[in-house]
Model the fold of this input.
Amino acid sequence: MRVPNLVLSTIILFISNLIVRLLGFLYKIFLSRVMGDVGLGIYHMIFNFLMICIALTTTGIPTALSCLVAKKNALNSKKDANIFFISTLYVAFFISLFISLIVSVCSNYLSLRLLKNESLNLFVLSICPAIVLITISNVFRGYFYGIKKVMVPAIGQVIEQLTRILFVFLLSMYISDKAMICYVTLIGISMGEAINVLYMSICLYKESSLYNTFTIRLRDFYYSSIETLKMALPITCNRMSSVILQSVSSMIVPSRLVLSGISYDQSIGVYGIICGMVMPFVYLPFTIGSALVVNLIPSISQEIALNKYKKVRMKINYSLVLTIGVGLISSIFFYFSGEELCLLVFNNKLAGQYLKAMYLAPLFLCLNQTLSSILHAIRKEIIASINTISTMVIQVIALYFLLPLPHLHIYAYIYTVTATSILTTILHSIVLVKALKEMKS
Done:
């Protein structure tokens, strides 16, 4: 894959991601006004739990599929590409279905642990269909990324976001209860993904490189499934551990904040401001990073398989320069204009103060995303996982002890997230430098 093609694919996904992020940003503004701080806090607690549920099927498996399909396409092996796609789809579907059934059976217990109220199990049940639908859509995306047709998943993401927003917006016009609006918002996740899956299914049916009546032997199914899982397992363990630790972190924030001298409702509200108002700005630069990553991993893997190390280094340098540039611009802007920005958008001065204090996070979080993806592509996924998990453990421990301190309050969360992101960047950079030296030799 030539660099211009990598740039073109990145631009296409950047545009779609930018649209999705902007729509999502406006959506967060809307939700903050119709749900309130407490509603936002509950929504993000359930959403974080959903991320745990789908981490097993939506991280390593689609990434591995895109790499394997890209390699088979480079060798003009259409049959093998079909085998990998179909077997991966079946494996991911049954894993996600199993997880969804477990969540539905344990919904009462989970609602008690997450929301401190067993009667709110409907909030947990509302995300069960999303577990399966998000998994299927991610496998579809992985296949399209592998065959270098990024336009389909790009359009699908925009359709998914628009469907979700319209669904929630139209229903919220007739609902006044904030708890019910929160429930509808969670249901909207499944509605958006269902339309996205339908759209990509139509595109798959029309895809000339995919045999619509294709069948595979059990031996081929077993071999391809094992190959996919072998590549996916380290990436999945990394992501799964990160999501679990992030969710544990998010769950201990309100309870530990209470020890600093505020009520539980106030702590939920402060956490809602961080998640619903500050973090959308912090993650806004990820529109370029995520667009780059999904193209970079299969592209670098393909070049390594062909022993084209010069192109590998060129793509790595290109991706890092782009990421640093976007991250620096974002961090500088948030430091000097964060307060005015949040006051203008959310009419919340406190959110602006938090965003200004968190100005370094966008730069290093973006760098971590790109560096981690590069390490996965050059088969350094195990050490990348160790780096990420270690810093996340440090983050959870630091939050546990620092949040109750009255003079730090929620700033303990801000400073801890920033510090651990810097530490992760340093560790990933050391591994990458060593790996590039090995390539030269």
